[in-house]
Design brief:
The complex is a heterodimer of chains A (240) and B (238).
Chain A: H1 2-14, H2 16-33, E1 41-43, E2 46-47, H3 48-78, H4 81-86, H5 92-122, H6 130-154, H7 158-176, H8 187-195, H9 197-209, H10 216-236
Antiparallel strand pairs in A: 1-2
Helix pairs in contact in A: 1-5, 2-3, 2-5, 3-5, 3-6, 3-7, 3-9, 6-7, 6-9, 6-10, 7-8, 7-9, 8-9, 9-10
Chain B: E1 5-14, E2 17-27, E3 32-36, H1 43-50, E4 58-63, H2 72-75, E5 79-82, H3 94-102, H4 111-117, H5 133-145, E6 151-155, H6 163-178, E7 182-186, H7 190-196, E8 199-204, E9 207-212, H8 214-218, H9 223-230
Parallel strand pairs in B: 3-7, 3-8, 5-6, 6-7
Antiparallel strand pairs in B: 1-2, 1-4, 8-9
Classes of the chains: A mainly alpha (240), B alpha/beta (238).
Chain lengths: 240, 238
C-alpha cells in the first residue's frame, strides 16, 4: 500500500504520465469538441467527435503503458533502485506491481474524466453498455501494460525503453483511428488495425457504445497480447 | 557462539575475469569488520555475495546460518545493505524515502533520529535528484540502517563525505554496533579502518592476504605502509 501510494505520487511529480497521458488528450478532447465539422452527424446519431472520445481513452492508456511505465521501470533498473530493493524484505517485484497499479489508477481517473467532460460539455452519450465498456477497457489496459512490461524487459536501458515505447506509440495510435477513423481506412489497413491491440480495443469500444457485448475476436486478441506479452516479459525480465 | 558471517572459499568469475579467486572470512557478532584492498581486488563482489546479490561459482556463504542467495527472503529482514551506484527515484524526498524504507521492516529504527544523526533533517523535504553527492551517500547509509538490521553491509561507507560527515557517520555506526548490529564495511580510508574497525581483512587479486586488528597490521609503521607492502603494485587481475 505504501509503495503504491509512493509510486502514484512519484508518477504525478514526474509529470510525463499526467501531462502527456491525461492533460494532452483532455485538451485535444476540448479542442476537437469545438470544431463544428466534427460535430456533424456522419450517420444518424453519430458524429466524428463521438468516435474521438474512445480514441482518446486509448490515447491515455497507450501513453501511460508504452512510454511512462517503461521509462520509469527501466530507469529504476538502470539506477540500481531495483538492486537496492533486492536487499530489503519488499523485493523489486512489488515495486513493479505498485508502479502498474499506480498507473492503472491514473488511467481510471482519466477515462472517467474524459467520458464525463464529453458527456457534460459536449453531450456525447455514455457507452450503451457500461459493463461491455469496462470489460473492454480492462482488457486493453492489460494488453498495453503487458506490452509496456515487455519493452521494459527487453530494452537495455532507460533511453532505449523510452525510444521503443515512442516508436511503437505512433503506429499503434494510427491503427486506433487517431488520424483516420478505422471505418474510413482501406480494407488492408482496417484488417491490420483489427489485429493491433488498440484497433481491437477500438472495435470492442464501439460495440460497447452501441450497447452490445463485443464479439469474441477483439476480446481474444486483447487477451492474447496480455498473456503473451506478460509471459515473455516475466521470462526475460532483468532486475539489474 | 557461532560466527555471524561465514564465507568459505568463494570464487566468482565474470566472463574472462576472475573477480574473486579464493576468499574465506569469519565475522563475529557485534564486530565492525573492515575490508581493504585496491580497486578491482574483489571487495565488492565479496560483499555482494554476502548480501545475496550474487551467487558465488564455488564455495559457500552463511549469514546467521542462512544462504544469502537461496534464502534471501528470510535474510533481508535482518540485513541492511548500502551499495555502490544504487540511486533512488529522483522525485523522492529524503523523509519520504526513510519513512518508506522503514515501513518495510517489522521493528525499524527511528528514521527521524537517523535522519538527524546523519545531518539530513534540513534536507527532509528535498528531492533525491537535488541532493549533493555527500547527502546522497548519507541517505544511502541511513537506508541501510533504518531497518535496525542485525547485520549491516556497507560498501564504500564514507566515500564522498567531508571530514565532519565522516566522523558523524562513524558515530552512527558505533551506536548501531552498541545495540548489537554486526557491521561489515568496505573502505579506502586508512584512518577509517584504523579508528572504526575491530578487525581488517586485506584482499588482493581476489584472495585474502591477511586478517588482523588494525594495530597488529600496522605494526611499528603506518597502516598505509602495511597496505602498500601487502598488495600488488600493478592493477589487480579483475
Amino acid at each position: 500500500m505504501n509503495l503504491i501510494k509512493m509510486e502514484a505520487i512519484l508518477s504525478l511529480r514526474d509529470k510525463v504520465g499526467p501531462l502527456w497521458g491525461v492533460g494532452f488528450p483532455l485538451l485535444l478532447l476540448i479542442v476537437l469538441g469545438n470544431v463544428p465539422s466534427l460535430r456533424e452527424e456522419i450517420e444518424p446519431g453519430v458524429t466524428i467527435f463521438d468516435l474521438y472520445v474512445p480514441v482518446l481513452v486509448l490515447f491515455n492508456l497507450a501513453m501511460l503503458a508504452l512510454i511512462a511505465v517503461p521509462t520509469v521501470l527501466a530507469g529504476y533498473r538502470e539506477n540500481g533502485v531495483l538492486r537496492r530493493l533486492h536487499t530489503t524484505p519488499v523485493g523489486p517485484a512489488r515495486v513493479l506491481a505498485a508502479q502498474l497499479v499506480a498507473n492503472l489508477g491514473i488511467a481510471v481517473v482519466a477515462a472517467v474524466l474524459f467520458l464525463a467532460v464529453a458527456r457534460l460539455a459536449f453531450g456525447v452519450g455514455l457507452p450503451g453498455s457500461g459493463l461491455s465498456f469496462l470489460l473492454s477497457w480492462l482488457l486493453v489496459a492489460a494488453a498495453m501494460l503487458a506490452i509496456g512490461l515487455l519493452i521494459t524487459a527487453l530494452a537495455p536501458g532507460r533511453a532505449a525503453a523510452t525510444a521503443v515505447g515512442t516508436i511503437l506509440y505512433f503506429p499503434m495510435m494510427f491503427f486506433a483511428g487517431l488520424w483516420v477513423p478505422i471505418s474510413a481506412m482501406p480494407p488492408l489497413l482496417r484488417d491490420i488495425s483489427h489485429a493491433t491491440p488498440l484497433g481491437a480495443g477500438m472495435e470492442a469500444f464501439q460495440h460497447a457504445y452501441a450497447g452490445d457485448f463485443p464479439p469474441a475476436q477483439p476480446l481474444l486478441i486483447l487477451l492474447g497480447y496480455a498473456v503473451v506479452g506478460a509471459a515473455v516479459a516475466i521470462r526475460w525480465f532483468r532486475w539489474a | 557462539m557461532p560466527a555471524v558471517i561465514e564465507v568459505r572459499n568463494i570464487r566468482k568469475r565474470y566472463g574472462d575475469t576472475l573477480a574473486v579467486d579464493d576468499v574465506s572470512l569469519t565475522v563475529e557478532q557485534g564486530e565492525i569488520f573492515g575490508i581493504l584492498g585496491r580497486n578491482g581486488a574483489g571487495k565488492t563482489t565479496t560483499v555482494e555475495c554476502v548480501a545475496g546479490l550474487r551467487a558465488p561459482d564455488h564455495g559457500a556463504v552463511a549469514v546467521h546460518g542462512l544462504d544469502p542467495w537461496k534464502e534471501r527472503a528470510a535474510l533481508t529482514r535482518t540485513l541492511g545493505v548500502q551499495l555502490q551506484e544504487s540511486r533512488l527515484p529522483g522525485q523522492l524526498r529524503v523523509a519520504e524515502a526513510l519513512e518508506l524504507y522503514s515501513s518495510f521492516y517489522d521493528a525499524p529504527a527511528d528514521w527521524r533520529e537517523l535522519m538527524d544523526a546523519l545531518d539530513l533533517t534540513a534536507k527532509a523535504r528535498t528531492k533525491y535528484a537535488k541532493l549533493s553527492g555527500g547527502q546522497k551517500q548519507r541517505l544511502s547509509i541511513a537506508l541501510a540502517l533504518v531497518g535496525s538490521p542485525r547485520v549491516a553491509i556497507l560498501d564504500e561507507l564514507t566515500t564522498g563525505l567531508d571530514p565532519q560527515a565522516r566522523r558523524d557517520t562513524w558515530e552512527v555506526i558505533r551506536r548501531f554496533r552498541e545495540r548489537g548490529t554486526t557491521i561489515v564495511l568496505v573502505t579506502h580510508f586508512m584512518e577509517e579502518a584504523e579508528r572504526l574497525c575491530d578487525r581488517l581483512a586485506l584482499i588482493d587479486r581476489g584472495r585474502v592476504v591477511t586478517v588482523d586488528t588494525p594495530k597488529n597490521l600496522a605494526g611499528d609503521g603506518s597502516l598505509e605502509d602495511a597496505f602498500l607492502r601487502m598488495t600488488t603494485r600493478k592493477a589487480g587481475n579483475r
